[in-house]
Model the fold of this input.
Amino acid sequence: MYKLRTLPGDDVRQIMWRFSERFDFQMAVQSARSIARSVVAKLVAEGARNTHEWTEQKDGLLTAFDQSGLTALFMDPHQGGFIEGPKNFALSLVALELSWVDAGAATSSLASNLALAPIHEKGTPEQRDKYMSACVPPQPGEDRKIWRGAFALTEPLPYIGVDTGVLCGKATVADWKDGEEPMLQIDKRGRFITNMDFATFVTAAVESNDDRIKGTFMIILEEGDEGVFDRGAPTLKMVHQLSSTRDPILNLKVPADRIIGGYDVVDGVIIPKYNHSEIIGAVFHRTRIPVGLMSSAKLLSAVEPVIRYHRNRFRGGDAAKEGSPRYEKGIQSNEDALQRLIDVWASGEAGCSLAFGAARLADDFDAVEKAKEEHFEAEGITSPRKQMAVLRKLNDQVVELIDLEYTPEAERNMARYNELKDDTLVQYAYMEALAGILNPGVKLWNTGVGANMMREAVSLVGGYGITEDCPGFLMQKWTDIQLEATYEGPEAVQRRHMTMTMTSEVFQATMSAWGRQMERAGKEVPGLGGYVLASAMELWQWTLNYLKSAKDDDGRKLFHNKRQGVTFPLADALGWLLGPYYLSTDVIELIEKGPMSPTLAEGIDDLTGFYKDIAHVQSARAAGEVSRICTELVYGFNECKGECSRDDLKEFQALKAKVDMCMAGSRNAKDRAGNALTEVMIPEALDYPMG
Amino acid sequence: MSSEFHIVVCGSIVPDPLQTLAPVDGPTGPTLQNEMMLPAVLDPWAGHALYEAANLAQANPGSQVWLVSLGPKAKLQQVMMAVSQKAPFQLVVADGSSSGFTDSFETAKTLADTIEGIADLDKSKMLLFGGWQSASRGSGAVMQMVGEMLGVTEQFQGVDKITVGDDGSIAVMERVEGGAYQKSVVDGAPAAFGWATGELPEPPNNPQIGMQNMQKNMPALMQAKPADLSGTSLTFEGVEVPQQRRETRVEKDASVDDMAKEIVEWLKG
Ligand SMILES: Cc1cc2nc3c(=O)[nH]c(=O)nc-3n(C[C@H](O)[C@H](O)[C@H](O)COP(=O)(O)OP(=O)(O)OC[C@H]3O[C@@H](n4cnc5c(N)ncnc54)[C@H](O)[C@@H]3O)c2cc1C
Done:
């Protein structure tokens, strides 16, 4: 039996999330944490959330972000930032730290980056330099106002929401003098637009309403442009009140060189280089990861206040005598209270592991994606369809790479592995399919399931849980998480994205490799729960393949993009598998690297014992969910014949029975982990103020 | 006229004060339970000294700041991710225990030796800074001994403010009894200052400064030599956390006057 000595600190996180060597990231963590636990917490405690308006008090947040380097985090060093290379991971860490206290603050810190993202991803070099530099806080001695942006895609009803295809934002040519830059009239109404109280520029999605402009595009609008820049009414939102949201009305005359990514003129028609879908695709690919972390951060942040509340519940007054179990253990003398908190904790860990896995992939993918574009450009293969065809031909090599990637190093053919890894297109195809699952997967599972788990956390604090002054602001967090499940695409959008990639041969090969890896972990790391996860992965894959050819009683195909009743639950099930898989690999990393850390070595077996149990608990829970969903889908579209037997499904039944049996030990894991909570040392008080 | 100072700040880490600090017997004497695993912070007194040092260096171009730390280097490295963002300094590390149970003489000796080893330090320009106390141990003795060992005999304790005059002299305000200050003037460096809280707030984090600091300070951490604290003859009969008595009563509408009156009565017994 192990004993969890303290709550996991930075040294544990750095190993698990693989940033022990990145001091720039560690500093970003410290910066964000110090703001979160001082300025942000104070705002919440003082009730700054109790108004829809953007107040002077809330505005102090932006100054704090500017001063502590968070505003410039998104920029490259030559633009005024301090982190070289991709920033997905760093932004994710910041999102986690801020949301540990209040996710509205995290939204505020990220929203300007969201506005910049279209420019960053697809803008011309001139656009990139101009707007990125303008958004860096002025340095000492510089006399200029900092720019902040808003990203305007969503429109008033009945236009853009989940469906981003029907735009009401319109563009026409206002003026086009020979040899001069055409002037465009942009008419855009936004709904729920973050940062709109103080944005000095807006990146807006619009559609042409003029024969002289082709299709849709995104364009940069500035506060000083000629026309109407009405910030509109504040959104009466009940969540994330430390962020600003309004419904702006913009009708402005702007030069065509503000079209993001530039344009060509062909036969007198302005042809934007990128349509709005291409741009938002590139943007959301990345920005959804920090949102998922906002949700998981809340679950982890709930652990300490809940333990403190439970332990101290009967202390003081004459409710219990010092030294009595009631006094010493409080509510922790009840198994259920301990184990439900373990569920909350395990979900938070799984979500974080998944999201940081996705963020690492996004950082690595940046360079590979650019290399792929250069490769195709050099070969003159520019149309997406032709590129797809080239990539498809490489499938065998991609699958080979995946096999090698997940083969233990000692058994791997290194020469072949390196050869395939150095092949840009092969590497790209593998990563692209994985990102196509992980990015929506993070957003879907962390926020959606996270919202349900947050309710569990709130209920562990009883009546206090649903008050404004509950330690750790759990009530605010429970409501906030619903926005995280909504903006940047609600769950339906993420499910749709996942269903598009999850059937691909490349992702299927990855899933098979994960299954083998977890099977191995089952053998080599007893207690981690590798077997149960591997069996659930196998069941999910079998079910997907079965559904692809199965039909309902009316002879209609089951797996079809019009049948969300089939495809979406399968995406949900896949979502459940991702978190425990990444958590398990992080725990294996901790088992390997922890003993080398001077600060962790002493208690490492205790620590890894606890983490193995947490991973096991989460894997078992996921396997249960997957098993339920798969069973409903496999049996649920054929009517009952009263025979209670389906010989045609023997294989499924065997796989399902295996999942059931692989649950072995999972409840012991939960018993142990729950017990550990009774002894764990926690700080004397929360390190941020309460209401 | 501006003066060029070589400011050496002695400061190390202490467990985050919010943590439960439970003394236990270890193999080599008392330690705090799970001390290595608990989050640590820069000793607040040393922190005041460091921010004052940075401010003084900025106001006197050509000045330099060193932070000399005796502490476990892995833990120090974690704390540096926050501290190195606050002000530019060169870190000098002696790898060893920063626990409140080490012998203050041994600690002072290690610090003095480490300072002697700083290549570019001009001792005639040296201002020796540190906390007049430490959050891990309030012996109030270390800085005085470091000063003595380095031959710095102009010493001030409980310092809240220093002002550098045009002639390079330094006016010092030291805390004395009853909230009063003793004012002194010292001709200039070298001198030692044990800081109380000083007058400066904690600077906001600036990752750019942090990155510059860490580029030069990581090698210092990597190359830190193990400190030899073995000369001690100090033993502990027993250690315990001061017992606190807490009697809680919830009163909603008590006036400040009533509260004060009650506290006075309680103090009188
Ligand atoms: C506080 C806040 C801040 C925001 N900030 C921004 C911002 O800065 N910029 C910006 O552009 N937008 C922003 N948004 C808008 C946000 O992205 C949208 O609210 C979100 O994309 C959903 O659109 P909708 O509200 O119109 O929902 P709808 O499109 O009306 O969808 C409602 C629900 O219907 C179901 N549904 C809809 N379509 C489908 C489908 N095809 N398949 C299955 N189910 C479906 C889903 O359950 C969905 O959740 C913000 C929103 C809020 C609340």
